[in-house]
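Predict the assembly for these two chains.
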Amino acid sequence: MIKNPDILQCATDVYNYYGTKPAGEIQPRETKKNPTKRVEQLRQRYFETKSSASVEFPYWYTRRWEELEGEIPIIRRAEALKAGFSHLTPAILPGELLAMRKANYLRGSYPMPWLSEAFFLAKEDELYKEAQKSGKNSADEVTTMGQGGGNVTKSVGNVISIAGKFGFRKEEMPVLLKTAKKWFNKSVDDIGHKYEQLVPGYQTKEEIMRAVICMFDSGYTLPQGREVMNYYYPLQFGIEGIKSICVEKQNQSAGYPGMDRLYFYKAVHTMLEGLQKWILNYAGEARFMALLEAGKIQKEEYIDIAERLEWLSENKPRSFYDALQLIWIFHVAVLNEDAISGLSPGRLGQVLYPFWKHDMEKGIINRESSLELLESMRMKFTELDCFASMGVVGGVLSGNTFNNLCIGGLDKEGNSAANELEMLILESAITCDTPQPTLSLLFDEKLPEDFLMKGIECTKIGTGYPAWVNNRVAIEFLLNNFKKEGMALEEARAWAIGGCLETSPGSWMPLEFNGQTYFIPGGSAPATSVGVHFISLPKVLEAVLFDGLDKRTGRRVYPTHGSKLDSYEEIWAVFKKYFSLTVEVLTLTNNIQHDIWGKVSPSIINSMLKPDCLEVGKDISHKGCRYNRTFNVEICGGVNLVNSLASIKKNIYDENHFTLQELKAAIDANFGYHSALETGSYSLIEQVKSDRFMDWIKIHKRCLDAPKYGNDDSFVDEIFKEWQLWFSKMCENYLSLYNEPLYSCQISVSTHAPMGAVTLASPDGRLCGTTFADGSVSAYPGTDKNGPYALFNSATCYDHSLSQNSQLNMKIHPSVVHGREGSRKFLEMIKAYLRKGAFHAQFNVVDSRMLKDAQKNPENYRGLMVRVAGFTQYWVELGKQIQDEVIARTEYEQIG
Amino acid sequence: MNHYDCKFYLATDVFKGICKRDKNLILADDVACEHFEKAQKCKYCLNFKLTADELGTCMNKYDAYPEMNAVSCHDFQN
């Protein structure tokens, strides 16, 4: 094998640069601050902790569920949830200021077999075998795993690794498998599967999934999430207050038409009783810890936690500290209801501001104590893990949970909504730089300059956040899509990002506190990013070129198109046909899955929180929310598609450099290279040639030299624009479960890695198995050669408000944005991009050589974070496919 | 007896935790110290019957498992 290709432009260096190559030592990131000693200790403990799953919640949930055979589903579900919450083992660590967590472990989570038990049944033999293995190995073995951070990548001693991430105690495995079996043919997955097969063309869906043209079904994997929380009801009424509302509404609905309302209110009431027991169990644990504690300060803190929890188990918050604790309780409660990623706290600084302002004015708290609480909150969010299937957790989420906290934007009247508490939230993200919650700054021209500069300060230290998001574009999108449901401009301003980058509708709710009324923003729609989840565009194009076949497996995915593909227009027409067929069949099957979810496992906690479910007595799946047009079509690999189409158009049809048959043969031969799966290298750098490299070199060179998106080149940008306009329009041809048209969504999360892994080489010169370009308007690594402003022109060649989002990642060397002048230059560049109508940009401010070093020596970089797509993650917890792609991204050495 | 069975064991993950008494880091499967007290687990409950390896019944009607924490179970008896 021949290494170090020297002819390919994209592969001449280990890194891709725009501007002068950095010389000398690896450049560190700018200013590093630290959290308080207490929080730093909590962070170190987090670093030492492994992802751990337990069976406690599913055991109690299932036990109660079985007892209530024949009961009305929503009541049965509420009782099951109540049993689960009531029996969770409480655990409070010394130094914690905010109590309560998903499960008893610090990074705890648990399987939810009521959604899907298939993984455990499929793996039964293997897991049983692991459970039977005896022998106790030293825990040192675990700590030497090194790469993987908190991931339990292999079974050891009394711990079984599940999905290469979660540790599970061996002695709990038999009961987990027994519990999982009880859900056979009863889980959302199984029932949904039974009925989705009734969709005409279902077999095509199966083949689409097998070929990984689509990444996963959302109905039973992550049925909720990618949405914004609404904390209004607990903050305004407290738990007993909400229970009283339920009783009152029950009395009004019992025996009257529309009886489902009665069952809904009863279910909410029951579920809240479970939450109260859960909170009081924690209070009891705090008192027990206080009894054992000798230190005066720590003892007082335990007692304080106990008193606070006892108060909040019934009442509304009295202070900022109370409010933050209550918000955390409900956030975790929703996360325990379903497998969820992307449950965003939304505009938390604006929700909490009335409490914070009051406490500051009264001298109850000060800046330092507020900051420490916010740092503590960051640790709690960072501890969150989501237990879902391997494909979802690893392939889509990269282990992340996407709790997006938004700052800035406008208030109800259209003035800047930024406040002093949000400045502190930014400061806490600098001092306690952890992946969660990630931040999004809702940019508007009305935001004050010092606020924006604070955002730059945070971005510069390499956190990857805040993401910079265009408030005006989002509002346009929302008004376009939710006007029919009554959204006006004032309410559109209440929006926030749900999940990594999903524009989500919100509403203003009247919070009364200390004799005043404050209109606080919160989410008022169900999960977005459910529906058609991640269609791999390069893989669809591959099927077009190979007459509907998945060349990797040899299986037929689509009906033969029978076209000779004699023109570019024919290729484009067949692509649209195959893509449309994909969206159609996936929409129908997903609608069934989500319908089943709503019928057998409806949301109760999240429904209670979302306006106007509690008012109208309907849960989320019965359109209880104020806004319901939230199903979308997500895509991946758009830039590789567009670059490939440009290459085909130019090389085959415009300039006749080679024929389509020759291109297909070159693709089949991976342009004379070994595949990424053989080499273990997933970007175009460091690829390995085969002996037949010279056979394909000319074609490959032409493919690589074809116009590439991101250079302000109209040849390719016109193709990009045509794709965007067609895509956003075609989504409206399909109806969601809620009888609303779909809209387009363009984020990659981590899917560009596994989807790239199963895709042959593509006509843009990308090699087989390598990762696609990230996001939706990021250039393919190494192909953006004309500087940032050329990239911006390409990215904004279409109207971003046509889609729920767009996503741009850039990597910038720290020296470029160094100092005050660098900050100013950085901010001006971002503003310039957003003013062109862009929706979003985010940045890795890092020296690529540091990432390469971290790949070689992960033990030296436990705390290193990078921005992947819509999320920041610890480097050591990312798979190599994504690591290689981030290293390969073009590093900007100048931005002027 | 090991830490995993002790009332004062506070698990942080499946491998380890801290002792609630002295706050030291301890391994779940290491032998407990002289301050050991039995944790409230199903295997110490009068309602629990072992029926197979790592499996049993609770009150003769529910599936159960011996190592489950029963600190929040109102039916726990010993």
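Chain B has a mean pLDDT of 96. The longest strand of chain B covers residues 48-52.
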